[in-house]
Structures are given as C-alpha cells and as structure tokens.
Amino acid sequence: MNKQKRIEIFSRLREQNPHPTTELNYSSDFELLIAVVLSAQATDVGVNKATERLFAIANTPQAILDLGEEGLKEYIKTIGLFNSKAKNIIELCRILLQLHDGKVPQQREALEALPGVGRKTANVVLNTAFGQPTIAVDTHIFRVSNRTRIAPGKTVLEVEKRLMRLVPDEFKQDAHHWLILHGRYTCVARKPRCGSCIIEDLCEYNKKVED
Fold it and tell me: Residues 106, 33: one domain?
C-alpha cells in the first residue's frame, strides 16, 4: 500500500469521525487507567457497567486500596479474569501512592512497571489521557492493519512499529481510535461489512464481502 492510499484512508476516517475517543467511560486519568486494565479480554460495555458502580464508591488509588482486594472483587466480578485483575489493581494503587503521589505517570516505563499494565494499556493511557501519538494495537487494529494492508505484520509489536512509521503524522494522534472503531463495527472478524465500508475502494483485502 502506498503513502497516498494511507493518506486518503485516514482522511476519510477523520471526515466520518473528526473527534474519536475511547468507548470506555471515565472522568480522570486514574479512572481511565483502571478501566483499561479491566478491559483486557473483556468488552467495553461490560467494563463500563462494572466501573459505573465502582467509581461511584471508589475512584482514587486510596479509595480503591481501602476497599481491599475482596471488596474490589465485588464490583468487578462480572468481568473476565477478575481475581487476577483485582490483585493487580490493589498493588497498582499502592505503587501509585508510594511512588507517584497518587497520580498516573506520563512516562511509558513508569506505566509499564505497574501491575497489570502492559505495552498496549500504556499506549492507550499515553494517547487518550495525555495526548501522546501512540498506537495501541489490540485484536481489532491487528486485524484491520493486516486485512487492509495499511501496516501488515506477524506480531502486535511489528504492526505497532509499522503503523508508527507509516501513518502520516497529522493522523497519528487519532489513528488508534479510528482503527479500533473500524474493526469493531465495519471490518469485523468473521464477515467484514465491505459493502458499507467507506474505504472499500482503497482496501487491499482480496476476499471482499458484499453486504
């Protein structure tokens, strides 16, 4: 795929959705961090249901720490892997208080040092909370990047590095959200909705499916 095609693809995605953002509900950097940690192998809808109850009671590191691991589990038990997530979140809150004055750090290394926070979670927080031009590659972005040939790669990291290199700078800040939403609602896993896709004529997928 050439540079002009990529520019046109992202131009159309921007025109369709000028101000994309995450579908996770949050009202602070800390709430976003917790929501993203909970969202691993879970749906945003499921996470939002749980955090609506949780954040009404506890939405700071100290407040969640005060709940304790068992108390936290009561709020997140509808989410997959809730036992390990509760353990990680309690420890994460303790570290934020001990090392970062209760604030979410803005550096990748510090974020990735937190329990339950991997590269993808760090990228989401850096991009959405702090406006850094990072691209968090989840299953949707991995699929869209490979299927369309925007940035094909065999691993998540390979796709991320290729996207960072190939996505024009003017689109980098929002590319993460556009690609996730495109993969979630149009370029879906089993039967992509090619007939209603705004970039169908630019996509290099050779098994297009008409609606």
Answer: yes
Q: Which of 128, 144, 168 is the last residue of a domain?
A: 128
What is the domain count for the chain?
Answer: 2
Residue 200: pLDDT band (50, 70, 90) is very high
Catalytic residue among 120, 191, 201, 208: 120
What are the tokens at 151?
């940035």
C-alpha span between 116 and 77 (Å, rounded):
16
User: Which of 128, 145, 165 is where one domain is finished?
Assistant: 128
Q: Is residue 210's pLDDT more than 80?
A: no
User: Is 87 labeled as catalytic in the residue annotation?
Assistant: no
Query: What global pTM score does this model have?
Result: 0.90
From the list 138, 154, 172, 174, the catalytic residue is 138
Terminal alpha carbon distance of the chain: 24
The H-assigned helical ranges of 28-118 are 29-39, 44-57, 61-76, 82-99, 108-112
Catalytic residue check, 138: yes
CATH number at residue 181: 1.10.1670.10
The DSSP secondary structure of 5-54, one letter per residue, reads HHHHHHHHHHHH-SS---SS--SSHHHHHHHHHHHTTS-HHHHHHHHHHH
pLDDT tens by residue, 140-185: 999 999 999 999 999 999 999 999 999 999 999 999 999 999 999 9
Both 33 and 120 in one domain: the answer is yes
Q: What CATH number does residue 98 fall under? A: 1.10.340.30
